Amino acid sequence: MNTEKLPKSVACSNRGFVRVPKSWPYQVYLYGIATAPILGLIVVDFETIQKTYAVVGALFIPMLAAVLLAMNGRAKWVGEQYKNSWITSLVLAGAVLFFLLAGGMEISEQLTIGTQ
After folding, report:
1. How far apart, in whole angstroms, are the C-alpha atoms of residue 42 and residue 47?
2. What is the rounded distance in angstroms from the CA atom of residue 3 to the CA atom of residue 56?
């Protein structure tokens, strides 16, 4: 495959030719995602990063379930064909309730430990 005549913004891959963005916001984004973790390790201690990662990870599934329940539960938004069935809505609601219950129990346990 002769790629000598292609502009520099086009790269060749096994799927064919792909346009590679060369804009300055994209370049700043690339430098940001490359240097932000390094700066985070220098500025913030590793334990804080681990706790933040754990909290964000623990909130991901209940937030995803709540968003899917709210957005896919409306036929006006996704169409009647793609609307959640009652079984899917029940499972998503169960996931949200489980995490609310588990979070509430953890908070109440932390509050009772703190008062003793």
Report:
1. 12
2. 44
How far is it, in rounded angstroms, from Cα 12 to Cα 27? 20
Distance CA 114, CA 106 (A): 12
Distance CA 83, CA 61 (A): 20
This prediction's pTM: 0.56
Nearest to 60 by CA among 94, 95, 36: 95
Which amino acid is it at 25?
Answer: P
Whole-angstrom CA distances from 8 to 3, 15, 19, 70, 87 are 10, 18, 9, 44, 51
Residue in the block written with tokens 């909290």: 55
Question: What digits encode the pLDDT tens for the residues 54-94?
Answer: 988 888 989 999 999 999 988 898 889 989 999 999 999 99
CA 83 to the chain's CA centroid: 22
Q: Which helix (H) or strand (E) holds 112?
A: helix 86-115
